[in-house]
Amino acid sequence: MKRIFIISIMSILLTNCSFNYKQKNNEKDLKDAEQVSSALFKELKDQDFESAIKFLDKRFLEETPEEEMMKLFERSNDSLGQLINTELYDWNSEVSYGTNTQGIYNLIYNASFEKGEAIIKMTIIKYPNGVMKILGYHTTSKVFE
Fold first, then answer.
1. Which of 4, 35, 44, 54 is the most buried (most CB within 10 A)?
2. What is the pLDDT of residues 66-118, one digit of tens each?
3. In Å, what is the CA distance from 57 to each residue of 50, 100, 101, 110, 122?
4. Which of 33, 48, 55, 50 is nearest to 83 (CA)?
5. Contact by Cβ (8 Å): 100, 20
6. Residue 138 β-bridge partners
7. What sign for the dihedral angle of Cα 138, 115, 38, 41?
């Protein structure tokens, strides 16, 4: 009887456990995040700001609605000119693998534009379903001063 009780408790614990492990700053995770940032930069280079919006997370768009983000992209383009090149300057990531795979990625780029240089900081989130979206985006440049 005691043995059945122990087996029952163990089976309940095992079925309710999620098996996850965390990994920080893995190169493979960086490559995953760079697929998102590269796709966004392509749309910005092409000045297709409507298509760029699709990479932004819904929580981002709750704080900065689509129309406002379009204006920000346009103003940035007017001030800095067309995006020419981006180079990854720094990054970090923390990804939880297992039954609930999810992650957060912080990328910092040095960016060259027609009229100047800028630093672009981007935060990307990976949801358990594998979808990756931009949760934060910030451009800093002396041109804006």
1. 44
2. 999 999 999 999 999 999 999 999 999 999 888 778 899 999 999 999 999 99
3. 14, 19, 18, 23, 12
4. 48
5. yes
6. 121
7. positive
For residue 120, which of 137, 105, 133 has the smallest C-alpha distance?
Answer: 137
**Which runs of consecutive H residues, i.e. helices, occur in 17-102?**
27-45, 49-53, 58-63, 66-80
Please say whether the beta carbons of 61 and 69 come within 8 A: yes
Exposure b/e, 92-131, CB count within 10 A at least 16 = b: ebebbeeeeebbbbbbebebebeeeebebebbbbbeeeee
In 54-127, where does DSSP find H-type helix?
58-63, 66-80
Write out the H or E segment, with its range, that includes residue 126: strand 116-126
In this predicted structure, the answer to whether residue 13 has a pLDDT above a threshold of 50 is no
Q: Which tokens belong to 137?
A: 């985006």
pTM, two decimals, is: 0.84
